[in-house]
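Our consortium's second objective concerns turning raw sequence data into structural hypotheses that experimental partners can test. To show how far this objective has progressed, the report includes one record in full. It was chosen at random from the queue rather than selected for favorable results. The single chain below, 175 residues long, was entered without modification.
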Amino acid sequence: MRDRTHPSKPAARGDQDRRGSQRLLGHGDLKLLLLALVEQQSSHGYELIRRIADMFHGHYTPSPGAIYPTLTMLEELGLLQVEQEHGGRKLYAVTAAGRRFLSDNQEAVDAMTLRTRHAARTAAKMALPPAVRHAMHEIKHALMARGSAWNAAEARRVAALLEHAAREIANESND
């Protein structure tokens, strides 16, 4: 995908798309992600959309307009095949060529996986209320400011405080 303001310049991960929203998947990541997901389990397009939305904890859901053309392209490249079709719904499976492609490009797959995990964490973090993000920053700052000045008793005390806070937050959301 190209940066819309500079047609000759590739869009970097994290750049805004033409609608002004942050792109969560980099150039080529969707192709690798779909291929890797189908390698794990044969899937229909809507199942892949749901699995990706689950990866992003509901903060990003790819559109059918992005998923289905990419699946078709992977099929045309011989990396995926339709295992069965029922009522217009195609069940995609990875081919031997698709497995080889993933194996030959394992470094790129691993990099995409790391980028996707990072983007999912960022999306979840940005969905938090600003006051919560600020409080998280303050806790992180206080912990890092201690540097290496920790003794065993202080480490246990701080760990107990953080664990108590985590339990309270989790209990409140489960009530």
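The partners drew two points from this record. Residues 1-21 have pLDDT under 50 and may be disordered. The chain is about 60% helix and 5% strand. Both points have been shared with the crystallography group to help prioritize constructs.
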